[in-house]
């Protein structure tokens, strides 16, 4: 099976990279073809699926723990790919078409195209409410184009999941990710309750500052008054200007210096990567491991010299070092991260460094007085960022779960704003009835993923506590012991154990929210 899976996955990853970096239609066609081919590896011979189910059912009899784990992971790949033969090509076409759309679409203001980075710049810097509204609406225009193919894709995903006996694709995805749905939503409900009043108080302060900055009453604040199209990042209130610390800096050099300090090499990754914005290029950021049996790891960014891209560059390279330093002797099926949320945790742990005092002093090179002046605002900024992102994540998780429960409900547009009002405490734009939810790329090409960002933040805080307890310097920055700890204790394990067992081995405990709550709430 591995001999058949490996070349198709490698080719698919390469086509995805080529489409993201060029936007060329031939790569979209290749992505569609390879997506279907990958599915057929698992579905072309029903007898293999039958055999796989028998192996999985009898896995406890396998004496070799590594082989047993390979059977578990291969079974999950088979189960994820079980699609009716007449739907395979259509699903592949929809997924490739949506990838192409999110890569090449540009919203417009007064008929002129505007890039995502430009929209973000307006939302961070402009004090003109009308200019902000126009930019925000431009960022949502893709929703109307994505809505119908996305809903068709949701229905087809549901059909394949229900054919296997799952409630819907959302339930299927969680089970195949080894995430218990009841435990997950109990955790999310607990986090929502713990953060509700702290977030309400925080948002009242933010709103007062934003209203003063934009010269409008607080009650007239709308989603475009915040600093990004989804209110998933901390708004810029003018209380502290972190961008100025990077305005004349080489973001790539600072990132390289960061990883040098923990003894993990990223120059080879950067040499293969695509780091700066240009026409016909994906406007987002991601990391990809083209071939998991090699060190061909790459990141895509659209770097500008500001705090956001400093954080994002460190974040994506966090994913990259995890992939690069997976145990070399691990077999193909185990040479991946323990889980989505563990690789997200490393990315988040690295991204958090960008405005922390240790990093500002040791890597950015600020003097002691400058660091002391930035320390309190930086801590406040990270607390704000975590609370804002958590509340936004709750919108995504609850919306996506409901979307798969019934993609044909007529009130999806209204539901999006109901959840935004409930969790983010936003005021919806009057009279707006647009598929703004479909502007979020993850719903199309990274389905049932967003809960892993939340779990990743919790894991990052738990790993941070373990680093403080288990390394001589008790920090991440400029600590080769920390780099060795992450490389040897976490990365090298790959997927040999279920993710929560991996976390327990590395930190001494299974995942819980205590460290995150202590750090940020």
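^ structure tokens above, recovered residues below v
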């Amino acid at each position: 099976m591995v001999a058949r899976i490996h070349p198709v996955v490698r080719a698919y990853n390469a086509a995805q990279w080529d489409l993201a970096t060029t936007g060329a239609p031939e790569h979209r066609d290749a992505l569609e073809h390879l997506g279907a081919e990958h599915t057929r590896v698992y579905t072309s011979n029903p007898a293999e699926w039958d055999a796989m189910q028998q192996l999985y059912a009898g896995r406890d009899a396998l004496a070799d723990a590594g082989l047993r784990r390979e059977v578990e992971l291969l079974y999950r790949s088979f189960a994820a790919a079980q699609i009716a033969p007449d739907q395979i090509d259509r699903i592949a076409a929809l997924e490739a078409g949506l990838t192409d759309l999110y890569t090449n679409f540009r919203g417009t203001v007064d008929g002129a195209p505007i890039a995502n980075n430009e929209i973000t710049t307006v939302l961070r810097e402009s004090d003109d409410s009308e200019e902000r509204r126009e930019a925000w609406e431009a960022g949502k225009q893709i929703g109307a184009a994505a809505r119908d193919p996305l809903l068709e894709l949701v229905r087809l995903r549901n059909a394949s999941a229900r054919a296997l006996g799952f409630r819907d694709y959302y339930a299927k995805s969680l089970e195949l990710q080894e995430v218990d749905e009841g435990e997950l939503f109990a955790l999310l409900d607990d986090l929502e309750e713990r953060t509700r009043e702290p977030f309400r108080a925080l948002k009242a302060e933010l709103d007062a500052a934003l209203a003063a900055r934009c010269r409008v009453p607080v009650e007239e604040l709308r989603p475009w008054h915040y600093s990004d199209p989804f209110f998933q990042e901390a708004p810029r209130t003018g209380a502290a200007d972190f961008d100025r610390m990077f305005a004349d800096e080489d973001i790539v050099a600072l990132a390289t210096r960061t990883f040098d300090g923990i003894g993990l090499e990223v120059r080879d990754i950067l040499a293969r990567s695509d780091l700066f914005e240009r026409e016909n290029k994906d406007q987002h950021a991601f990391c990809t491991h083209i071939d998991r049996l090699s060190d061909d790891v790459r990141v895509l960014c659209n770097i500008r010299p500001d705090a956001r891209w400093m954080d994002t560059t460190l974040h994506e390279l966090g994913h990259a070092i995890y992939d690069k330093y997976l145990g070399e002797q691990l077999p193909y099926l185990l040479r991946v991260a323990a889980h989505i949320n563990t690789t997200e945790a490393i990315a988040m742990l690295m991204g958090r460094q960008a405005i922390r005092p240790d990093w500002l002093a040791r890597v950015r090179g600020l003097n002691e007085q400058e660091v002391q002046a930035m320390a309190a605002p930086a801590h406040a900024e990270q607390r704000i960022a975590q609370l804002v992102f958590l509340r936004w994540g709750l919108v995504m998780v609850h919306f996506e779960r409901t979307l798969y429960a019934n993609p044909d409900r007529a009130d999806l547009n209204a539901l999006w704003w109901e959840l935004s009002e409930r969790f983010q405490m936003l005021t919806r734009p009057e009279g707006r009835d647009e598929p703004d939810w479909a502007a979020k790329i993850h719903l199309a090409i990274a389905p049932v993923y967003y809960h892993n960002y939340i779990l990743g933040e919790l894991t990052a805080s738990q790993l941070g506590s373990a680093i403080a307890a288990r390394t001589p310097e008790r920090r991440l920055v400029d600590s080769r012991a920390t780099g060795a700890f992450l490389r040897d204790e976490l990365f090298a394990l790959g997927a040999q154990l279920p993710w929560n067992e991996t976390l327990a081995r590395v930190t001494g405990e299974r995942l819980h929210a205590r460290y995150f709550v202590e750090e940020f709430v």
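The radius of gyration is 23 Å.
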